[in-house]
Each structure stands twice: as C-alpha cells, then as structure tokens.
Write a structure and sequence with these properties.
Layout (H helix, E strand, L loop, with lengths): L13 H12 L27 H14 L3 H13 L11 H6 L4
C-alpha cells in the first residue's frame, strides 16, 4: 500500500513567506537603523609600587565590598589628588622622560 502524500502548502501563505524573507534579508524600508557607539579605549600601563600594608589591605577591602577593580579605585583617587597638584600637568624634561621610559 502506498503512503498518502499530504499537501502542506496551505499552511504557509505567500505573503507570510515574503514578509519572512523581508524580515531576514532586511529588504524593507521600515527596517530600523542600528547605530553603534564606539567608546574611546583608554590605554593603560602596568606598574609595580609599594604601599603601606594597612593601605593595601584597605584597598582590597574597598575593592571587594564596592565590587570595583582596584585599578579603577586607584585611578579615581589619583585623578582627585592630581586636581590639586598643578605640577602633575607639567611635562617632564625630555632627558627625564627617557630615563623614566615614559611614552
């Protein structure tokens, strides 16, 4: 006995298929335009320093409880400190810049 073939064409209409193609291919003029914002990537430099043990402990504790990176905490603290230090914005002499291997 031969298997009966079912005609399923009535389940998908042509307009729905056309809309699906337009949705997938984006050929409709109503397609929303997506704009991406590119954030400026801040260049970072790794360095080693020595802190008093109590300060180091407090830095770790703040980092844990505030859920912030230690580098972000240090950066915020130093930026606030530099705001009151005009020498922080003075460029180093070229010889000193090279000696300190600064960019």
């Amino acid at each position: 006995m031969a298997k009966k073939q079912h005609n399923l064409n009535h389940l998908t209409s042509r307009p729905a298929a056309a809309k699906l193609d337009e949705l997938l291919l984006g050929s409709t003029p109503d397609t929303p335009t997506v704009t991406a914002t590119i954030e400026k990537v801040v260049e970072k430099t790794r360095f080693t320093n020595v802190l008093p043990t109590d300060t180091f402990r407090r830095l770790h504790q703040l980092s844990f409880w505030s859920r912030q990176d230690m580098s972000d905490i240090l950066d915020s603290a130093l930026v606030a400190y530099f705001a009151n230090q005009p020498d922080a914005d003075k460029a180093l002499p070229e010889k000193e810049r090279l000696k300190r291997k600064m960019p």
